């Protein structure tokens, strides 16, 4: 990412207070304001340093293994016999998911700020693994917060984090999932802000985190734009990505925001069904509220309290959503929909059998939407689906449903 490239996106940057439209901001205790100001100042300074982005690009290329392929899914295309389907293979990036892009950027930032300790929250564990990876490489102490329920259903990633030298702190409060892990990470940051950098894993939280994470993840969309023009000599008609917090989706969408012919579709987790109340579809069924330092769409009960989310995917099991997605929903630039646990499982098994690719459960939600989208397409059109992560971590869940 060059500085020149980054600054061409000013149209969609948040305002000086960190708002995307009416969403975003900094809803935090006063004690955190200096830390956020320090972070914003450091990031704004680094944005103007060509050396920083040269270092970032070198790490993406030589450590993370970018660019990731844009793969033509011939068998999946033949299955639907409609538009040509391409898969952006973030599952092939180092550590097995798109999460490595953001952690590389933030660890470089943390080093520049002189921080000695790194903390993070994780649900599916992919962000935790990516954070533990870059912290190990940088020689920094690392602590990962993870809900106890997620510790149990994402054991392979817990083991990977420990092997990388990170401390994994289980969280036993609340639903013992990503929401509660984020709460504990924020409490830790409040107590240790002088020497600790909090690597938030998605486009959520107080300003400037949503902007920073989006910028670091936008490499996904920039590569996709170049690769699809090489392969098809045109831009795609549809981009499809799963949305929990929404970092992989905004990373794919962002470089296409000015190209109105490209339809942007975010797919949330409908869990056991939207009518069941057991889902994680914040944009589809939530309403604006304040959560984890930001104003965004949020699952709430009749009293305005946070409604507990549910998804078969630990990475989507979050009651809020990235603030820029809330803006894009109300702006109408992106469309948000949802699929159930059952539909996601079916899509995961279909992709595995047709293309030999086992997707993460998160990515399976985006793939599941093809069942609804493809009948509306024509053979002349092009669809790109972001495979945000690989399914190794979800094997215990998949095996329960394998006949």
Describe this structure in words.
By secondary structure, the protein is an alpha/beta fold. The model is unreliable at 1-10 (pLDDT under 50). The chain is 43% helix and 18% strand. Helix 3 packs across helix 5. The chain folds into two domains: 27-61 and 99-209, 3-Layer(aba) Sandwich (Rossmann fold); 65-96 and 218-400, Rossmann fold. Helix 12 links the parallel strand 9 and strand 10. The chain is built from 18 helices and 14 strands. It has helices spanning 3-7, 33-47, 50-62, 74-80, 99-112, 126-138, 148-153, 155-163, 178-192, 209-217, 219-232, 247-253, 282-285, 323-331, 341-355, 361-368, 370-373, 395-401, and strands spanning 19-20, 23-24, 70-72, 84-89, 117-122, 141-147, 167-171, 196-198, 238-242, 263-271, 287-291, 294-298, 334-340, 382-387.
- End-to-end Cα distance: 45 Å
* Order of strands, widest sheet: 3-4-14-9-10-13
Q: Helical element count?
A: 18
Helix coverage percent of residues?
40-55%
CATH class of the largest domain: Alpha Beta
Q: CATH topology of the largest domain, what is it called? A: Rossmann fold
Mean pLDDT: 94
Judging by the overall fold, what is the CATH architecture of the largest domain? 3-Layer(aba) Sandwich
